[in-house]
Specification:
Layout: H1 4-9, H2 14-18, H3 44-47, H4 53-66, H5 72-80, H6 88-102, H7 107-117, H8 129-137, H9 142-152, H10 163-168, H11 170-180, H12 186-194, H13 207-211, H14 217-222, H15 229-243, H16 247-256, H17 262-271, H18 273-277, H19 281-286, E1 295-303, E2 306-308, E3 312-321, E4 327-338, E5 344-356, E6 361-369, E7 381-389, E8 392-402
Parallel strand pairs: 2-8
Antiparallel strand pairs: 1-3, 3-6, 4-5, 4-7, 7-8
Helix pairs in contact: 4-5, 5-6, 6-8, 8-9, 11-12, 12-15, 15-16, 15-17
Amino acid sequence: MRNDADATTDALPATLTAARRPSACTRPHLLPISLSMNAPTVTDTALKHIFDEGCFARVADLLRTAAPQCDAERFMALSLQDLDTLSLMQRLRRMADSLHAVLPDDYSEALDILVAIAPGIKPVFATLALPDFVARYGLHAYDESMQALKYFTPFGSSEYGVRPFIRQDPARALRTMRAWAGDTDPHVRRLASEGTRPRLPWSFHLDALAQDPELAAPILEALRSDDSLYVRKSVANHLNDVTKLHPTWVMDRLERWPLDNVHCAWIARHALRTLIKRGDKRALAIVGAGTRAEITLGRFAVAPDTLRLGDTLTLHVDITSTGQAAQRLEIDYRLHYVRAGANLSTKVFKLRACTIAPGERLVITRKQVIRDFSTRKHYAGRHEIDLMINGDTLGHAQFDLRIG
């Protein structure tokens, strides 16, 4: 008897295998975005212009070739209506909905056409509209939709498109994605991890996975020593998500991993980055930095001591090892930002993670532009900075920020 996972992980149908797939060795960089219309729009200004008139026109040309029965002119008219007023996410959604308006009512026929045009969509970022189409209009057709998402992911990414299927039926979707974790294509293996992240940025949370990380554990275990950095980054990000709710669970698991394996060790270091910045001694011990650093601090200073918004702050660190053996150092700095009402907020920045030999001197210079972001507004006043090495505060500096 075949179960649902068997049905969706067999060889792809001819319509999917016939189309050209992108090389697994090349991968365009994609910024993390969400298909939620309520998502932040930090990157809208730069990215929304990917979905410009030319992008929609190229899709219309692909439709004319692959599916002459579809009304390409209507697709353009629907797509361009008030386009200038739409954000990135709204433009992406506009493409999916405009395609739906002109594609056949039969979902299988519509998918065949999308499969045919996917290789030709440029820029590749625009292919994210195809998994969005599947998520919006294919929840009723699990097998076909999951096959399509698996096919589309090497072109852009199906990590957002797959999440409604996980939310609808976690057990069924996870069976399929556990099989994906063993796929020969690193894009598909990465989808297994990225799509199941409990807190994927700018997407809705997967409550079942947030409450019980064991549900996705077989996927993470299958990928823990993956030879693709692209996949390992996803596994590390997934585990970092989990540390925010279940830090003990993550550390228990990582302590059982063969950390002499370079790939497992890489994932562990990056998965624990949030805990390391908090100075968590157990997390630091897992990456080999659990003891107090044996060093002398020659200098920790910032310059200039007075800045205005937009100026560049320069940090100087000069340390020398006094240990008798090589030691692992996790070097961070914690900046205490002045907030409205004389309150403070802190943010920890990574300076260096390294192994230092006995007697070795290490000099670090770091520049940081002090400017406002959509997520951070600066206020005038004295800002304190702590130097943290292996979780211990070993140095202190300060600067005054003037506004206006």
